[in-house]
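Table S7 (text form). Paired inputs.
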Amino acid sequence: MTADPTYRGFALDAETALALLQWQAELGADEPCLDAPLDRYVMPDRAETPPAPPPAAPVVAKPRDEAEDLVARAEAMAAAATTLAELAAAQEAFDGIELKKGARNFCFCDGNPGARVMIIGEAPGEEEDRQGRPFVGRAGQLLDLMFGTIGLSREAVDAERGLYITNVLTWRPPGNRRPEPAEIAMMLPFLTRHVELAQPQLLVLMGNTPCIAALNQQGILKLRGKWTTAFGLPALPMAHPAYLLRTPLAKREAWADLLSLSARLEG
């Protein structure tokens, strides 16, 4: 079946016309031309009424991102909690994070919730996932030794000598991988409320992940030892004990950080 008009005396069918169009596009033709030449340098008649602008495209509301919805839900659940027990129940019930499906246990906190010092770590490891408590593996054992040298312990009943410990993530990432930005964002409302309800005097940001969550910064080896403010409180970034196990020479700097923390508590 042929179509009108003809091309130089030959009738064109739809398939041939499409092939010619594609061929011209491959040659670099990027816009159609008129049947007659148009001098684009001729000034238009000033009396000529300019053509009406095309109608504006309708404004379509951008659908809300799913991640934003999850963060908003986490914020609402965290804000509704008035005690640490309520916060723990709300965070454990939050089903927006995929880590929950692969973890064995929920790791909320350990130590004395009335302690002056609150340690914020990164995420549970294998042993933490098994026991449902933060910092109980090899890194946790080193943490206990470190803070014991300045008279602080998670077992202490006295708030002056106690430690309160939590993590940014309360479920173990598979293979102990680093927490992803979306996971940190979803857990941040719970962590913020956690600090508000625990009311410590000082914070220790143990590793890169808590620095990302609390300070929106990373590079713990540059941040460590420098007092800053996080969640409205004085905060000291420190290298994670897992890093110290891999790099024993860094324990000297960790000792300096512990002395700085001790002096701050005494001062």
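Next pair, protein 2 of 2.
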Amino acid sequence: MPSQPSKTLETFDNPRPESDYSIRIRVPEFTCLCPKTGQPDFAELTLDYVPDQLCVELKSLKLYIWSFRDTGAFHEAVTNEILADLVAATEPRFMRLRAEFNVRGGIYTTVIAEHRQPGWQPPAPVTLP
């Protein structure tokens, strides 16, 4: 196999660090294991962030997400772990991770975790007619 799962998140320099702009990354095939039964859990992850000096490199993100495939984790724990690792790697102005887990035992779970850089204020939204 040419590539393997990895816990290493690579970054690159933000090409426009002077600007507040958002990046949205959708990961429709996240998989981990239920820590109680060992059965697979599936989720769609949506990452929204406003970068500061660094952006996450997508291939490393793909390999990082893959590294959870054989890991037992509660939904709340794995969502917050991923957010914490991404924040540590990129030190963004703002980051939100939304994890929408497929049904397990007749229950759907969505976990939303956020990080905001101290002192950062989002720009005022523009409302067009």
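The CA atoms of residues 7 and 64 lie 5 Å apart.
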